[in-house]
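Input structure tokens:
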């Protein structure tokens, strides 16, 4: 270690800057290879699944509105039967949503999990923690009421690159299904040993409510 420090001090300022920039470039490559690319692929897959759920909900609700309008104009038994069938399809969709969200971690358990995993990483410091809860928006054209809600946390952490990496890998290996909305890794003037990462994770539920922090 002393030899490395001595080697660094013997370099000219220009060489020290070049070595520092090369180190940052290597950290960037590791970030892309180990974090950014896998998380991007996972996010795309999650968005596709959510879009399918949204489309199913929107279609069921649009069909119900059309049938209600027709029934109001012409109270025909045929329309009543169609409404019953549409309601059955809608309930089947909701049952599928409940089955899918049952495999997701609950908002309260998500907060506890993230905090427990953070305590195991002594090289990390929690800078900021915020909670949020919002309806999962449907396409504007549908104008249908939301039946799914996002409950999540925004965390800002500070620490070494490998400490941050170990924390994210622990979250992924926890066995719980979590949605990754964003991940921002930054290296400041202090270098990779004191980098910062801001990530947003959320879970889904049919129940509106705030996640207390």
């Amino acid at each position: 270690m002393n030899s490395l420090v001595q080697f660094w001090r013997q370099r000219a300022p220009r060489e020290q800057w070049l070595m520092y920039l090369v180190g940052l470039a290597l950290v960037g490559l590791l970030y892309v290879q180990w974090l950014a690319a896998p998380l991007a692929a996972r996010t795309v897959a999650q968005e596709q699944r959510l879009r399918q759920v949204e489309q199913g909900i929107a279609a069921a609700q649009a069909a119900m509105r059309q049938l209600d309008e027709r029934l109001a104009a012409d109270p025909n038994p045929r329309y009543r039967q169609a409404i019953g069938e549409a309601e059955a399809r809608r309930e089947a969709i909701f049952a599928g949503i409940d089955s899918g969200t049952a495999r997701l971690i609950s908002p309260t358990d998500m907060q506890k999990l993230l905090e427990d995993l953070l305590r195991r990483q002594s090289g990390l410091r929690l800078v900021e923690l915020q909670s949020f809860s919002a309806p999962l928006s449907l396409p504007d054209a549908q104008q249908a009421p939301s039946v799914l809600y996002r409950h999540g946390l925004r965390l800002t952490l500070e620490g070494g690159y490998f400490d941050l990496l170990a924390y994210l890998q622990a979250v992924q290996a926890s066995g719980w299904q979590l949605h990754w909305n964003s991940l921002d890794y930054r290296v400041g003037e202090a270098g990779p040993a004191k980098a910062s990462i801001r990530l947003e994770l959320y879970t889904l539920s049919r129940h509106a409510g705030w996640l207390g922090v």
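The longest helix spans residues 13-73. The radius of gyration is 24 Å.
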